[in-house]
Amino acid sequence: MAAGRKELLMLENFIGGKFLPCSSYIDSYDPSTGEVYCKVPNSGKEEIEAAVEAAREAFPAWSSQSPQERSVVLNRLADLLEQSLEELAQAESKDQGKTLTLARTMDIPRAAQNFRFFASSIVHHTSECTQMDHLSCMHYTVRTPVGIAGLISPWNLPLYLLTWKIAPAIAAGNTVIAKPSELTSVTAWMLCKLLDKAGVPPGVINIVFGTGPRVGEALVSHPEVPVISFTGSQPTAERITQLSAPHCKKLSLELGGKNPAIIFEDANLEECIPATVRSSFANQGEICLCTSRIFVQRRIYNEFLKRFVEATRKWKVGMPSDPSASMGALISKAHLEKVRSYVMKARAEGAQILCGEGVDQLSLPVRNQAGYFMLPTVITDVKDESCCMKEEIFGPVTCVVPFDSEEEVIKRANSVKYGLAATVWSSNVGRIHRVAKKLQAGLVWTNCWLIRELNLPFGGMKSSGIGREGAKDSYDFFTEVKTITVKH
Ligand code: NAD
């Protein structure tokens, strides 16, 4: 390493309780500077074979522990994550580009909470039993862990989404091979350092780093991995479905969204406007649940638009470490270009860009000028058929359009291929229930956004996914159920 140059952070795979180097590495960038700062193992089939062997060996002992014993280990892991909160938050913010404030208040506390939550829920499941007295029979169900679970996660909420899969899988007695996104691998590697201290036996959690086409496909295609939980994009889900089909694998797919916010004329705009700015631009708009189509009832359309643009201009883009910043950098150069290209297409189609990209000036310190920053952008005068209203942009871009009637807005909100989340703003309780029921979305928030109850099902309809996650849903997914009949 030349004098004066910073050492690169070198990650290693974690297999069978050991950190192992890899024969090749890929570059990982700091989104706020555009510089390479970390090397991620470029794993493939060989590493997956080793991880399968370790997970297979660990399975009999781990799956034989009682839920109470596994619960103790999960709680210890939650404690250790909480003790390392600041270090993990700094790492997540640097790796992903999100603000340190968000990593500190949401990503890392929630990752710890995932272990604590499943540590608690695992000890409360019961089985079913029915009788058939006329045949002198009783029937009951038992659930057993599926085996080795393959867990694949995206880059937007790295540790938070990875632990949302690891925690229920191991709580139910499976052993796991996790593959985080190659763009954001650091906090998963840091998690590995805590496992031994928490009492996780070697081979129960294996983390293998690298790209989707190489290591992701090796994991998905492996015949000894019968269950795959995937969060990511719809095209990748298609590929995973194809690769899993010959083995009839159990699949959970949590995919993208094109989430509408529906704002009726009786909405409380004092609450709705700041919440809708947040739902559009939180985490740089890089949350699958972010709002990207805002339908506003015509009588309040102009007032809403004026106040919404004013509030968006106050949503500060800044260095991820700046405590006054609401938004940091986007994940990569390629993603920034993709997000910007949607704004250019909208402009070419005759839409108006009211603030943000190409309208306002972004001022950045010299060191960050090659970083992947972009201003929050509001588009209007855009047709429902435009790609900005149909496709997932997954960045800080939102469209605002007027509507007239309840019936019309439901039809338009449902007119995309996705069905993940929606928000409805109104003070009419009857209307809220009516509209929420008719929307094609796995989650509907009314007069709020992103309030989560982990016990209840999470997931999407249509191209937003297959299956649900949550206390009971994740337990059902990571176990096989058997019905036993006893004649007496
Ligand atoms: P992506 O599909 O490109 O990648 C997700 C993961 O899959 C990564 O780990 C990647 O390496 C891996 N992968 C890529 N190709 C693969 C292949 N051929 N085989 C196996 N694995 C492969 O998605 P992304 O860009 O990382 O994440 C953004 C997407 O995730 C958006 O569509 C977003 O809406 C979605 N998302 C959904 C949820 C949800 O809960 N529904 C949550 C967060 C993100």
Structure at a glance:
This protein is α/β, with parallel strands linked by helices and 488 residues long. The protein has helices at 45-64, 67-83, 85-96, 100-121, 158-171, 186-198, 212-221, 234-244, 269-281, 298-313, 333-348, 387-390, 406-413, 429-438, 471-477; strands at 9-10, 13-15, 18-20, 25-30, 35-41, 129-132, 137-145, 148-152, 175-179, 205-207, 227-231, 250-254, 259-263, 291-297, 352-355, 377-380, 397-403, 418-419, 421-425, 443-446, 461-462, 465-466, 479-487. The protein has a 7-stranded mixed beta sheet, with helices on both faces. A 6-stranded mixed beta sheet has the order 10-9-8-11-12-22, sandwiched between helices. The protein has a 3-stranded mixed beta sheet with strand order 1-5-4, with helices on one face.
